Amino acid sequence: MTKRLAANALTALGLLLSAAAGPAFAQTKLTFGTDWLAEGEQGGYWAVAMGFYKKHGLDVTIEMGGPQINGNAAVMAGLVDAQLSSGSSGALGMVQQSIPVVAVAAFFQKDPQVLISHPGMGADTLAEMTGKPIMISSGARTGYWLLLRAKFGFTDDQIRPYNFSMAPFLADKNLIQEGFVSSEPFQIERAGGVKPVVNLLADNSYSSWSTVVLVQSKMVADKPDIVKALVEASIEGWYSYMYGDPAPGDALIRATNKNMSQETIDNARKMMREYGIMDSGDSLKAGIGVMPEARWQEFLDVMAGAGLYKADLDVKKAFTNQFVGHAMPWA
After folding, report:
1. Which residues on neighbouring strands pair with residue 45, listed in sequence order?
2. pTM of the full predicted structure?
3. Positions of E strands within the chain
4. pLDDT confidence bin for 328, thresholds 50/70/90
């Protein structure tokens, strides 16, 4: 199924599931791109099934991401109204290129990115992985890999290409691979019968947020009510998905991504709670989605030191907190 057909099917099913949830007035149409195929790590955005977007006056079409889709380019070009970016780098990269796109919420306080190794192979910590072969995606080279080089002395000759297949890792105990704490460790244990060693980068000085919502700056200036509705509906969706009834969202995820099992979705939600991926740190006081400037600056300083950005980049141009960090209407 193509991305466009999948999105159309998603919209039809979402409207069916939420038909009785929202008001009777006309809805504002909005396209929302995700950063990957439908999965539990996106659970709160399937508020289209829970009726939260409709409740906030939006008719949302979700455009699924995937390995061949450049979501950041899609929001730059106006192909989507809002786009999930996997980390803080997306927004800062826009500033460096003078592209008028801004982050309006960061729903994961911790980036779920991990490095996974085999037990008993002398690679139980990040420091012990120096000099060992590591499978990473192409995008990681200009992301967390820069931190690992700067802090732990990793070198580029350690890199092996990761094509989102666990087969090489399962076949070679000397290999280390990237993944999400909420996904790959579970899949590896299920497929290989061994519990892997997992190191969460967020607990090792990688301060990037994840699932950052990007929109064009013009949208913030001209249509703040629509941005506000999108962010608040997503916040409500995430709280409901994590602490309420996730069943409508789960059903829509499985209907959209036929390869996604309920067991995998349940594990993702469990791991996100266990590791405080969504709700920890600043979000415990100010609510999920909040993005303190000091943390943006901290991330910029680290990545600028690694050569990714200019040190004098104006971090304030990367984000706005006008839609987060305040009491929500349902609170």
Report:
1. none
2. 0.87
3. 28-33, 58-63, 82-85, 101-108, 113-117, 134-136, 159-161, 176-180, 197-200, 210-216
4. low
* C-beta neighbour count of 73 within 10 angstroms: 11
Neighbouring-strand partners of residue 102: 215
pLDDT of residue 134: 98
What torsion do the CA atoms of 127, 183, 191, 63 make, to the nearest 10 degrees?
A: -130
CATH fold, domain 3-110+208-318, is D-Maltodextrin-Binding Protein; domain 2 (3.40.190)
Which CATH entry fits the domain spanning 113-203: 3.40.190.10, 3.60.10.10, 3.40.50.970, 3.30.450.20? 3.40.190.10
Whole-number Å distance between alpha carbons of 81 and 219: 8
Rounded Cα distance, 168 and 29, in Å: 43
One-letter amino acid for residue 9 of the chain: A
Q: Are 294 and 203 in contact (CB under 8 A)?
A: no
